[in-house]
Amino acid sequence: MAEAITYKAVAHKFDCGTDFSKLSVINFVGPAGAKACAYCCNMNLDLDGEPQAYGPLSKPKLRPKDNLGNAGWKREADNTALRLKYEAGKKLLSELEQKKVDLIAKAKPVLDPTKRPPATAKAAHDPAMVALDKQIAQKKAELRKLSFEHINANGNYSATNPKNFEKIFWQWYGVVALTPAQAKAAISYLEMSAKTLTVRKPVLDNTSYYEDVFGRFPVVQSIFEPGPDYFVTQLPHAANPRYPSWDQRYFLPHDAFFATLVSGTRWLNVRSRHSRVWAVYTILRDRVRRNFQTTFYYFI
Q1: Is pLDDT of 280 > 90?
Q2: What residues have CB less than 8 Å from 159, skipping those under 6 apart?
Q3: Phi/psi at 239 (nearest 5 deg)?
Q4: How many CB atoms lie under 10 A from the CB of residue 146?
């Protein structure tokens, strides 16, 4: 008798960038406890974890499958635009705070020095002040998010501001990135190849325009990794912790292989974990416009 496949919607909703919101995700449980999830949205490109997803601009012979902008990087012109937006926001915040000061001063009663001051009463509800406070709070939150104020590279609160606070307005998130100090302090990894032993540490591409708000630079893959000279790209979880977290193999199953099947205008890329599917993604070519990609992750 065939085993049943059950399904249940996830309790909360999801967003797809800025295009769609309140999307449902359905979890499936099938034979032998196999699990999968499904969702429907517009085509999205996400190649994080692919060893040749991102590469340095200085090596034109490399053929990265994605552009650095999808890993967080901003060109100088884009960073300048964000800086100008931030400075304009700070100016508006200053104006809002001054407006609040003026409202408070205007609402304060003028006392007659010849008379006894009245008993302190509860301040009356002022809709204009409430609206102004809301504007100020929203603008402060917007500026904190834009500048990474009191935020560390993991997205948590920090008592200090990032190294390039109010100078650089972007951070790496699609690649493994470290500060020079972190790379120097990293524990060495002993690489064994045939009869040769190589002591390795993370190697950074410290080109100035690759430095993010936290002072980090992308880690470059070595000859021992699946994408030499490409940047190490990351996934949310480790798949092979026998390697250091700055090595591309840390994010790949131990016996992973990458195969590409071509059929007409469709490419099917399969990442294998033993005999099970690790992840599948299909690229459909739109000959008039550009390539699109949809991703289905199977949690096995």
Answers
A1: no
A2: 150
A3: -110, -20
A4: 16
Residue type, 263: S
CA geometry: angle at 292 spanning 75 and 295, to 5°? 100
What pLDDT, on the 0 to 100 scale, is given for residue 41? 76
Interval 124-136 mean pLDDT: 88
Q: Which amino acid belongs to residue 135?
A: Q
Tokens representing 92 are 């508006």
DSSP string, 13-58: -EEETTTEEEE-EEEEE-GGG-EEEEE--S-----TT-TTS---TT
How is the chain split into domains, by residue range? Answer: 1-32, 54-71+172-248, 74-109+126-169
Confidence (pTM)? 0.71
Task: Please state, in angstroms and as integers, the Cα–Cα distance from residue 125 to each residue in 107, 108, 110, 248, following that order.
Answer: 11, 14, 19, 58
Q: What is the mean pLDDT of residues 190-195?
A: 84
Residues 97, 67: Cα–Cα separation, whole Å: 41
Are 34 and 281 within 8 A, CB to CB?
no
CA proximity to 174, closest of 245, 235, 238, 251: 235
